[in-house]
From TrEMBL:
InterPro entries (UniProt xref): Tam41
Keyword vocabulary terms for this entry: Lipid biosynthesis, Lipid metabolism, Magnesium, Membrane, Mitochondrion, Mitochondrion inner membrane, Nucleotidyltransferase, Phospholipid biosynthesis, Phospholipid metabolism, Transferase
Family of this protein: Belongs to the TAM41 family.
Pathway noted in the entry: Lipid metabolism; Phospholipid metabolism; CDP-diacylglycerol biosynthesis; CDP-diacylglycerol from sn-glycerol 3-phosphate: step 3/3
Localisation per UniProt entry: Mitochondrion inner membrane
Membrane topology: Peripheral membrane protein
GO MF term (any one): phosphatidate cytidylyltransferase activity
Function per UniProt: Catalyzes the conversion of phosphatidic acid (PA) to CDP-diacylglycerol (CDP-DAG), an essential intermediate in the synthesis of phosphatidylglycerol, cardiolipin and phosphatidylinositol.
Catalytic activity: a 1,2-diacyl-sn-glycero-3-phosphate + CTP + H(+) = a CDP-1,2-diacyl-sn-glycerol + diphosphate
GO CC, any one term: mitochondrial inner membrane
Entry protein name: Phosphatidate cytidylyltransferase, mitochondrial
Gene source species: Schistosoma japonicum (Blood fluke)
Cofactor: Mg(2+)
BP GO annotations: cardiolipin biosynthetic process; CDP-diacylglycerol biosynthetic process
Length: 370
């Protein structure tokens, strides 16, 4: 299925969810159906969809009425009779606050084809907080990798025209993720190929994710980057970030290395003094991350934290930064798993878990991709 055809299908799917335009902000799709992965089939995979809204409580209240079969019995009935519960569950709880409905079937009236999808709903404010602060590194982590933004008001998606706050926050998230990935490799692993850089970026939201221990594709990160089309998508996504890093003394050079991505690789090199380059990169990392990385030093100013980190050795600095990200991702992945068990219900949760285990066994070579 071509990308334009798939975009059209998902656009009609979004329309079918009866979204109130005054509440709706934007939506994006991701996963192996949207972005086919090298050496992996996606015949039985779900389309993953995220809907960004201003008020998730009102959105779900309307959607429970319009599409009650999307929700498990307990949540549907509890929310219907206890309206305050819906507000408490979706707005006041900690964690990423993404409510998913998995294994939803939809018939496209345009060509009478059937789609299986999973959709999550998140408040714009919650998403902005994650993008700017890396408070959960959940959807912020997802948006550090290529996604398919879905046009709604027209046939062409213009990110900036949808929501300037979201556009600006996403740009900061991308620059932060590239800076973090470089810090995890500079200067020990320099020059750094684009392939390794994008793998490092893709791994950020999986550091500490308990599902990587059991229930995930063991080659997930490599599959996200491998292949000519995937590398091209990452380049396009991080084009502006690359330009920003040039002012810090980093540049791209042609490389004659092997064809890990079936494409020409590039190397990233730095020309500034190491401590200066490190401090400049740390300025792109959210204050929240820098302060948590030095919480044992009684430093409370973000720039003081950056100065402290830039003067550490490569190993000590990376251990602190990586440990901070690990703890954030571990906590949010456990929370979101618990939320998923409740929102999807036992039957759908079991089905989803078995599908994940099947992917893990296939990646280990025990079974074939289905």
């Amino acid at each position: 299925m071509t990308n334009s055809r798939l975009t059209g299908k998902i656009k009609r799917l979004v329309d079918a969810l009866n979204i109130d335009r005054t509440n709706y902000v934007a939506s994006f799709a991701y996963g192996s159906v949207v972005f086919p992965q090298k050496d992996k089939t996606s015949n039985n995979s779900l389309i993953d969809l995220i809907l960004i809204v201003r008020n998730p409580v009102e959105w779900h209240r309307k959607n429970i009425s319009d599409n009650p079969n999307h929700y498990n019995f307990l949540f549907r009935n509890y929310a219907k009779h206890q309206s305050s519960y819906l507000d408490m569950f979706l707005s006041r709880s900690s964690g990423p606050k993404v409510y998913y409905n998995p294994f939803i079937e939809w018939n496209d009236p345009f060509d009478n084809t059937r789609l299986s999808f999973k959709y999550g709903v998140v408040a714009l404010d919650s998403l902005l907080t994650d993008l700017l602060n890396w408070s959960h590194l959940y959807l912020a982590g997802r948006l550090q990798k290529p996604v398919l933004w879905i046009p709604y008001y027209s046939d062409i998606f213009s990110f900036q025209s949808y929501n300037e706050q979201l556009y600006a926050a996403q740009n900061k998230n991308l620059l932060a993720s590239m800076s973090y990935a470089i810090l995890q490799n500079y200067p020990e692993n320099f020059p750094l190929s684009e392939y390794d850089l994008f793998c490092a970026i893709s791994s950020i939201s999986y550091i500490g994710d308990w599902r990587m221990i059991i229930g995930e594709d063991r080659q997930k990160i490599q599959r996200l980057v491998s292949g000519k089309s995937r590398l091209s998508e990452f380049r396009s996504l991080y084009n502006d970030s690359f330009k920003s890093l040039q002012s810090y003394g980093f540049s791209l050079k042609s490389s004659s290395k092997s064809n890990l991505c079936d494409n020409e690789l590039y190397c990233l090199q730095s020309f500034n003094k190491e401590s200066e380059s490190v401090f400049q990169l740390l300025k792109n990392i959210p204050n929240h991350i820098c302060l948590l990385s030095v919480k044992d030093t009684y430093i409370y100013n973000p720039d003081d934290a950056r100065t402290f980190l830039s003067n550490l050795s490569y190993t000590d600095r990376n251990q602190r930064l990586r440990g901070t990200v690990f703890n954030i991702v571990r906590k949010s992945s456990l929370y979101q798993t618990g939320l998923g068990l409740f929102s999807a219900g036992p039957r759908r949760s079991l089905r989803y878990a078995l599908a994940k285990l099947s992917k893990m066994f296939a990646s280990l070579g025990f079974t074939k991709w289905s």
